[in-house]
Amino acid sequence: MPHKPVGERDYYLVPEVCERMGTTQTTLYEMMRVQQKPPHIRIGRVIRIPKVAFDKWWNMGEDAAQEERHESEMERLVNGY
């Protein structure tokens, strides 16, 4: 079943969040696994990112978001992911 257009859904798909964050799916999945961020819902193998929760997290302040992205990247480098 095809997805509704983004304006008609109350969630984002993983590729949409990756584009918005400027990151790869691998990095996003790692952030979700390690930090449980950005806020997301997993139903079996399907991941949905609620728009309201993601937008609040993403807009919490560019400095805080940058720090979280930096920490995630550093953890990835340290752990060899």
Structure description:
There is one protein chain. With 81 residues, the chain is an alpha+beta fold. The protein has one domain. Helix content is 56%, strand content 12%. Strands 1-3-2 form a three-stranded antiparallel β-sheet. A hairpin with a 2-residue loop joins strand 2 and strand 3. The chain is globular and about 40 Å long. It starts with 10 loop residues before the first strand and ends with a helix. The model has no long low-confidence stretch (mean pLDDT 83).
Give the tags:
alpha+beta; 81 residues
Shape: globular
Q: Helix proportion of residues, in percent?
A: 55-70%
- Look at the helices and sheets and give the structural class: alpha+beta
Number of helices: 4
Spans with pLDDT under 50 lasting ≥5 residues? Answer: none
Physical arrangement of strands within the biggest beta sheet: 1-3-2
Rg estimate, integer Å: 13 Å
Q: What is the averaged pLDDT score?
A: 83
Following the backbone from N to C, one meets helices and strands in this order, namely EHHEEHH
Distance between the termini: 33 Å
Domains, number? 1
